[in-house]
Structure formats: C-alpha cells, structure tokens
Amino acid sequence: MYTEVPAADLLSAGRFDERPGMTVYREHGARNWMISLTVSGSAEFRVADERVFTDCGDLVLIAPGVTQHYRARSAEPWASWWAHFQPRAAWFSWWRLPELAPGFSLTRFGPGHVRQAEAAFERVHRNAAQSTLDVPQGRMVSRQRGDIFATELALNAIEELLLLAAVKHELRQARQPDPRAQQVLDAIAADLAAPLTVDGLARLVALSPSRLAHMFRREVGDSIINVVLAMRLRKAASLLEFTDRAVGQIATDVGFSSPYYFSRQFRNRVGITPSEYRTVSRSVSPAG
Q1: Which of 121, 116, 64, 118 is nearest to 87 (CA)?
Q2: Which domains does the chain possess?
Q3: Which of 146, 204, 237, 280 is most buried as measured by Cβ atoms within 10 A of its Cβ?
C-alpha cells in the first residue's frame, strides 16, 4: 500500500507519536524534500536495501524522487518531527551533507543538542500551518498558498536545521578521527558472539582500559559497553525478523550467555520481548 504523496509546491510539517504498525511507503518518493528529527523512541528507514535506525537526535533528509520507506520500530512511541519543503536556491551554495545513499542523509545530533533542533521544528510546524489555506472548490477542498510571511519564517527554521547539520559535518571532517576507535568497532562487528571485554579491546589497540574508554567515548559518543549491547541487540532484531531461529539460539549467536539476560536487555531497549518483536515485525506491512 502506498502513502499519499504531498503536493510538491506546498510546505507542510507535523509531529508523529507512533507505535509499531505505523509505516510510510512512497516507492517513488515525493517531488519535494523531506526532513525528519527523532526526539524519542526509534525508527527504521529502508535505504538502498539496507536498514538505517534512528534514535533521539537523529536528523534524516531525503531528496525528491528517493523512495520513502520507514516505520516506528519499538514499543516506546516513536516521537518525531517532519516537514516537506522546497529549498531556497541559495542554500545549495553551502548545502554539502554526506549521504549514506544517493539522496539520503543522516546527521546524528545526539540527545545533548536535540532541544535546539526540536525548537526549530516547532517553529516550522507553527508557521507551516499558516502557510497554506483550505480553499473550497465546489464539493472539494484544495490546499493553496496562504500567508507568505509564515512560509518564509518556516523556511528560516528549516534553513537553521540544515545549517546545524552542515556545521556538524564540517567540524567532524576538520578533526582527524582516531583510527583506533574504528579498529575497535571493526573488532566488535567481526564477531558479536565473542566474549568482548574492555580489557581485551584495549590490548588490541595498545591502550590502557581507561584511556581506551575515554578515547572511544570521545570519538563515537558512547561507551564501549553500550555500543556492544546496541550492536548485539540490532543483530538479534534482524535475526528475529528474518529467520526462524529459536530465541535462545539467537541469544547465543549474538553473544549473550543467558537467554533470560538477553530477553531482559532486549525488552529494556526495544520495549517488548524478543518473541513479541518477532510477531510485531512480521505482521507490519506498508500502510498509509
């Protein structure tokens, strides 16, 4: 089933507070740009045969014509702001956001900066509501341009969001990343079932455990323990959705020694048990 495509020349914005089952699917995308900010919960975006997960503070930008396929993915409501818009031509002089796939950009602001981005979205939403009018045409109602000043104010707030993203990417490129952080990430991803410890990873990159912990948090933005847990649970979610392996076997496959501990951590992070996640994920189909 396809989700209705917004009109190309009208500015629109809103907020989602959705549980699993809410899915947007536009095979041919839209004729305008879409921007979305996750403020709580999590969503899954399908991008070029890959799955991209967003958490609090993640800003997604999708170009016109790019497939839009995303859904709420945890029991905790997925709260997010969204807007469809046409950019000002002048923006493209500084608009250089790296893409995970053609037409799909992701900026991770993180929880510490989400309030600033959310405040901008609140202004987009408030002014976008005045930028269009419902105009009766016989028995039908059409959406037409309304207050031009409200449109400009909404675009100002969208420009602020894009500038924040552009600055973040510029700062990241200007700083030389520590290759040891990537080495640790690669080691974790190579064998999630391995008994990974901070001490063992520290020996891998010839650092003390305390120095590794400090460097890793600086480079990645989270602790090693949390990253390992998140990667294991993400892999487990994929196995629950796309295989028929027993829950206990999946727990072992991703590095949990106890199925009970695995289920408890999965429920804490996702909001439902592994068995419930399997049922929900297989029952969700693209809908409007």
Answers
A1: 64
A2: 12-174 (2.60.120.280), 179-283 (1.10.10.60)
A3: 237
